[in-house]
Amino acid sequence: MAATAPVGGKTVTVRVNGTTYEREVEARRLLIHFLRDDLDLTGSHVGCDTGNCGACSVLYDGTLVKSCMLLAVQADGASIETVEGLAEGDELNDLQQAFGAHHALQCGYCTPGMLMSATALLREKPHPTEDEIRKGIQGNICRCTGYVNIVEAIKSVGA
Ligand code: FES
Ligand code: FES
User: Fold this and answer.
1) Measured from the CA of 48, which atom of ligand 1 is nearest?
2) Most buried among 31, 84, 124, 147, using CB within 10 Å?
3) pTM > 0.90: yes or no
4) How far is CA 119 from the centre of its chain?
5) Which residue positions in the chain have pLDDT lower than 50?
6) For the CA of 108, the nearest atom of ligand 2
7) CATH class of the domain at 94-158
């Protein structure tokens, strides 16, 4: 028997970390839930579902967005980058390694979103000042670190 499309469903075609996915989604499905539950890309976290914490941050056609603030259908035809796309094979990239080296995470809940915000910042400003780094991650809440080590980690990559 043919699979039944979700109520109010639409077929979306999205490129995520270089792989193209085609899925039927409900019109109301949030992009973060699409990534986590439909594509099994659970690196992006849900901290608030209200656009405040930044744990769900991803890049949408290269622009930093909070994926709990977008519908999956809005990503139709778009290219999305998530934290899973940062490593080069089994090798963490320079930014990820810097977070480890500078003890820029504790519980790690905010880390995927922080990494995506920092990635967006470093692409725009390869050598950001401390002020620019703090502005770049201002949409990301960390309950653990006090931010100092996160800023240091990002600064070390841009140095
Ligand atoms: S879960 Fe999206 S901003 Fe908090
Ligand atoms: S490391 Fe725990 S919220 Fe940031």
Assistant:
1) 4
2) 31
3) yes
4) 9
5) 1-2
6) 1
7) mainly alpha
